[in-house]
């Protein structure tokens, strides 16, 4: 039933963007009016950041010589299934620009052969290892380049993980903005060091899968987020990504504050391009493009895969809201030519910025078939055929990185009586289909849309084919000659264990993207909730009823409830192996048998009950109309909420045991740059380097069909049948969006560089701690830095917020390492919704900085101005 508008008025949180008054000194809290996304026009142009200067100069020269058709070509995909990649633009071959291949995804090159299936983001987050984050980025970039992918569609930092049941949280790095931000920036730097363009996604508020897209009868949901929450949580990792120089950003399907992200001028023009100073290009999510002129004016630069999405368009019939329509809107003067020039300049500059003008390979694979030859345009009725797969092996030695990540993410949650590590001659009985292979064969389900055998990743576009897989079963069998396997989820009732037998029980929990439903879960975990799939709890309990010692191994996309068995006496150990990717087997045995100590830490909280979360983070379902999803919990997601509500979870954020123990000593806080003002130093004005082009509307003939042109049905071209008619129709009657203007906005004070005002990134304190291995086995420790901001800031702020982390090398017993972690001005600031700027406590007065092994296990505290102590 549709809720009354009064109720919605009370529930929805408003954006105070429009009312911001720089003179007011008190921070405005969220109020409860209707969500609204204010207009923000025109689109800020790219080309004013010095790191991009050379690329923009080259792009300026090249774009100056482009015809209208060539320009439109680069902005619009050629149509779904109209080429080898998830999407490809048209080309400007005359000027040396090929079709650009945009392809998934965040953990490897999707749907192809001879490519590494790295562990997904959530596993990477659990390593808390910056070096591995970067190294995986390099591997992803090298493989993208090797396959001819120009733009690899990752990393994913949205969803942030607000909703524990959310289907795609596993593609990102964990339920904390700083963890996501650090991991995303390192991934991007790694990827782009190879020449591949990264595409951070999905901007923004894409926190559940169900109803993410508009379909017949339903409109994509609206994530109604207040300004402060948006800045301090959801935009935070995007800011870090822009700061890292990301080349492209993917816009999400959903609305934010009742305006669809693909045409939301506040989100694209205002936040991304003005405040965050983004210099690359903005691309739609697939088929998220629902308006022509409005999206262009709102700052969108590229339509993928080119076809228009519902509502308003029937996709897949060869219709785009850009392509010829964009040509028309330029010829008839509706869209200013300088907007199109900026779109194309951004795309070409990004191409130059990554060096793709220097021998970048063309695609040598096809997502459409595994055969060597096939149709070049499978979406066409009649397509020419040719060689589409060259089976190029791009894996190099990336399996080493993949295994290191999978291993160093494994999180030991319980280890009573030090039952782990196992000895090679322990008598083992292994249970659960999650230990074994997919009975239907490797990669039996497309896009991993099934949960069979060991769970290596979730499903959807964020998956990749496994090039090979050593299952936990095979890896254990290879090491132990005393292991017996029961690769079934039904406990064999006839079994009679010997007293010394150890049961290892494998369970899992899966989720994925909404276009596939797996065992009743339409992406989000709506059916299985936070419980293990395949009656995993029963399997553990049955084993615990017969064995004295049970080790549970969990593969999961996110938090899983363990209350039914975690306190049972026989359940001695729990290893959370997250989603290991292709190295599922060896990474696990590395830990199980003690070659390495576990060193992963939880990138989210594991609760005792789902009701411990705020009710506002449940998945919302509604068959008709538009879901309004008010983010009423504000900043209080995951551990921020548990602390505020004083709820002790089963395992806190950041938790993870080892086979050894660590002492944290000598915490110190070294002042680096003074924090001598509430707000950062004023930003500089934009330098005068933005490319300028002639503004005359180009000749209509530039988008006429070339003579004797062999059109392919459904392929999207920039051409018009009668361009002259479009040009003549120049009476400007277009109903421009509310607030549309061509007068540039004043420079936002929080902007001024990539990611925001450069002063925000000044290091103000350096935190140091000495970590000593105090146990008897070698191992790696993670130090997590949490900040507590003072009440003097005048706003309610989460008690503790992760802002930095570091991981030691492998420390031998007795060995020490000093870790150093930098805190920036932004790390100690709150978003001031009135000033529209980041506000910090002057001199850091009243700030407490904690170093710990989890949010609930703090080992050292430093109070700015009064020193540090061990806790
Ligand atoms: C997903 C994106 C993906 C795109 C292309 C969409 O359905 O939301 O994350 O990159 O498809 O496959």
From TrEMBL:
Principal EC category: hydrolase
SUPFAM superfamilies xrefs: (Trans)glycosidases, Beta-D-glucan exohydrolase, C-terminal domain
InterPro entries to which the protein is assigned, alphabetical: Cellulose_deg_GH3, Fn3-like, GH, Glyco_hydro_3_AS, Glyco_hydro_3_C, Glyco_hydro_3_C_sf, Glyco_hydro_3_N, Glyco_hydro_3_N_sf
Signal peptide coordinates: 1-20
Entry-linked Pfam families: Fn3-like, Glyco_hydro_3, Glyco_hydro_3_C
Region (Disordered): 735-755
GO biological process: cellulose catabolic process
Keyword Acetylation: no
Superkingdom per UniProt: Eukaryota
Record's keyword annotation contains Hydrolase: yes
Record domain Fibronectin type III-like: where: 781-855
Polar residues bias locations: 735-744
Gene Ontology MF: a single term: beta-glucosidase activity
EC number of the protein: 3.2.1.21
Entry keyword set: Carbohydrate metabolism, Cellulose degradation, Glycoprotein, Glycosidase, Hydrolase, Polysaccharide degradation, Signal
Pathway the protein contributes to: Glycan metabolism; cellulose degradation
Catalysed reaction, written as an equation: Hydrolysis of terminal, non-reducing beta-D-glucosyl residues with release of beta-D-glucose
Reported function: Beta-glucosidases are one of a number of cellulolytic enzymes involved in the degradation of cellulosic biomass. Catalyzes the last step releasing glucose from the inhibitory cellobiose.
Family under the similarity heading: Belongs to the glycosyl hydrolase 3 family.
Protein name (Swiss-Prot/TrEMBL): beta-glucosidase
Organism: Aspergillus nanangensis
